[in-house]
């Protein structure tokens, strides 16, 4: 009963803290404090209610058990991180986004490709990953290359569509002005159209960050060597080691947030001139 009361007390403290912060002038500190307080409140309530209700660790382990297993398994988590994130997700992300960017320039240069390629891209993008992953694993083997291939397929078309759309963002008057200066296609591309397309390109890059990590992890469920985040999650569930499963989930959440946040910071530095970046703290 004491655990339940402690959980309720944590909820009241978190609620009261956010009410007090809401009365303060908006600033970067208050904007950061609100989600931190909510996150800590959820963790404390999770710990208290799981222990107070005596929930089995097989169903839902408490955060302290997850943290302890995280500390004990850092070598395993690091090995899985390198296999899944660095080799699979990051390699596929770079290859897929790079290929999509170059293809988008070709599509923009030759309009018939847009009519023929984009409908095929929409069809492929609609295919479920659980259908593509086994096929690509059989084609490229059970190591990280097949996971990178899955990531390439997942990120290619969202990046392609956003880049093609971005290259059309500059208006006709701006393009006509470049032609009056006798600018070539490539001069117009690099000095006008690519800068105008940057918000769209970064939108595609941000979408691809989440797709890359999801694709690499899910692909490992269909075959992988004895390492990797997806492999560890699937085998640990079978062994009822849910604390290790949650430790892998924590790593995936941290990596995904850092990956997305890094691209968002780069976007802010590159597109500081865009109206979408004005007024952000």
From TrEMBL:
Pfam families: BPD_transp_1 (PF00528). Keywords: Cell membrane, Membrane, Transmembrane, Transmembrane helix, Transport. InterPro entries: MetI-like, MetI-like_sf. The chain crosses the membrane at residues 31-50, 90-108, 120-142, 148-169, 200-224, 244-266. GO terms for biological process: transmembrane transport. GO terms for cellular component: plasma membrane. It is a multi-pass membrane protein. Its main location: membrane. Gene3D superfamilies: MetI-like. It is found in: Cell membrane. Residues 96-270 form the ABC transmembrane type-1 domain. This is NitT/TauT family transport system permease protein. It comes from Lutimaribacter saemankumensis.
